[in-house]
Amino acid sequence: MSRFTRRQLLSAGLGTAAMGLLSGCATPGIRSVNTAPVLAPAASGEKITLTYWCWLKDAQKVADIWNASHPQVQVEVVWIPGGNAGGYQKLYSALAAGGGPDLAQVEMRSLPEFMLVNGLVDVARYGAQDYAHLYDQTLWGQVSFSGGVYGIPQDSGPMAMFYQPAVLDQVGGTNPGTWDEWAALARELRKKDVYLDCFPLGDASVFTAFAAQAGASWLRPEEDGWVINMTDDATMKVARFFDQAIDEDLVQTAFGAYSPGWFAAAAKGTIASVVSGSWGDALIEGVSGGSGKWRVAPMPTWDGSGFGSSYLGGSTAAILANSKHPREALEFAVWMTTSREGIDAEITNSGIGWSPSPDFIGTPRQAPSEFFGGQSYHQEIFVPAARQQNEDWSWWPVTQQSFNILSDGFRKKASGTSLVDSVAAAEQQIMTVFRNKGLSIRKEAS
Question: Which residues are listed as membrane-spanning (predicted)?
Fold first, then answer.
């Protein structure tokens, strides 16, 4: 995992005017909150109220448990739309106006963009490193930059394969251990007019997760700017694989996982499986008549190379720059994401993804699942999956714009443009985006 400074994010000499271009709004101020004096804790006996903006449902019920035992530090939750669906724009606007909440839900992949606008408190200044041992170290690496900590891991999505055994049995198949075995099984299922899975051309995050599993690491910061390599062997292997899968009609591209079309096909047995994040289990339970018909297996691997799993999704509880009480906000964030009562409350009320604590997956996830045929899949599949991750993967500024570029290219597959060519073209466009925003970037030498 690359550790980089805010200076590296900006590249040497880049001023705050260029920072504002990255978020589409003015920066919160010339002076970074992280160069200002550390704020003192609330005075003894002083009652304070923290605000927490997030898109988790019923998160106030989680905060109420904290509130009952912390009368001097109360937390009020405000619901916002999910990230790029409007939530981030609200946060950027509030920051630019000198306001905003004490804490906010920010996806791990979006932290660098908030850092670029001086939007986040480096909570290492308030003792966050004292809690590092409580978290999965891969996730802690996703929030740590050159000695600073810019978010507290809240949940993640280690990946696995959810499948219907009875559908695979139609061709005498079993859950595949490798992607080559996956392709062979998909070919047999097509003879029965069944697709093994979808490939979403409009959502590059899935392809990105597959590439990370294969061992890719697309961007990294160095002192003189960013280095990009999206045409490495691992990425090209994944692109060629799914080019062939699409060309052979082995994957459904007319709709994506968890869409209305997907639910209908899954209920009919014409979609056999989905490789997805751990949070997919709750969505799969919405398949009509699906109880007892689904199981979970490890994610297929790239012929023994790469990693056993990958992450799809993942959020943090980040402390925003204009908070007057970052120390207390950090304490709440750590309680919510590591204590047994906090994790259980988040699962029960908000349906969070995988717990960031390596020592406690949550009480509701320890029992066998009736829907998944009595399988204790959280313990059997996702505990090891969370430990089989690509630690060298790190996120970069303008991640969402990069995904949009890649998705636009993938949509051209129907008109004959290969995924391989789209990835190469996207790399060039992403380099242009960086340079247009005043960020230094170069292609890694082969």
Answer: none
Could you tell me if residue 390 is inside a domain? no
Is residue 430 a part of any domain in this protein? Answer: no
Q: 42 with 72: CB under 8 angstroms?
A: yes
Own/partner contacts of 341-348, CB < 8 Å, gap of 24 or more, are 341/65, 342/62, 342/65, 342/66, 345/61, 345/62, 345/65, 346/56, 346/59, 346/62, 346/154, 346/155
Tell me the β-bridge partners of 225.
Answer: 222
pLDDT at res. 116: 86
Whether the CB-CB separation of 172 and 123 falls below 8 Å is answered with no
Identify the residue whose tokens are 């791990």: 108
What CATH number is associated with residue 330?
A: 3.40.190.10
pTM over 0.85: yes
Could you give the C-alpha distances from 200 to 261, 276, 411, in angstroms and in order?
Answer: 13, 12, 9
CB atoms within 10 A of CB 248: 12
What's the rounded Cα separation, in Å, for the pair 264 and 129? Answer: 47
Give, for 426, the enclosing helix (H) or strand (E): helix 419-436
In the prediction, which pLDDT does 27 show?
Answer: 34
- 85 contacts 134 by C-beta, under 8 angstroms: no
> Domain range spanning residue 55?
6-155+311-375
pLDDT at 368: 97
The alpha carbon of residue 278 and the mean position of all alpha carbons in its chain are separated, in whole angstroms, by 11
Please check whether residue 250 is in contact with residue 198, taking contact to mean a CB–CB distance below 8 angstroms.
no
Q: Does residue 21 form part of some domain?
A: yes
- Length of the chain (residues): 446
Among the residues of 25-97, which ranges form H helices?
59-69, 87-96
Q: What is the pLDDT of residue 135?
A: 98
Tell me how many domains the chain contains: 1
Low-confidence residues in the chain, pLDDT < 70: 1-31, 446
Q: Which residue(s) pair with 317 in the sheet?
A: 105, 152
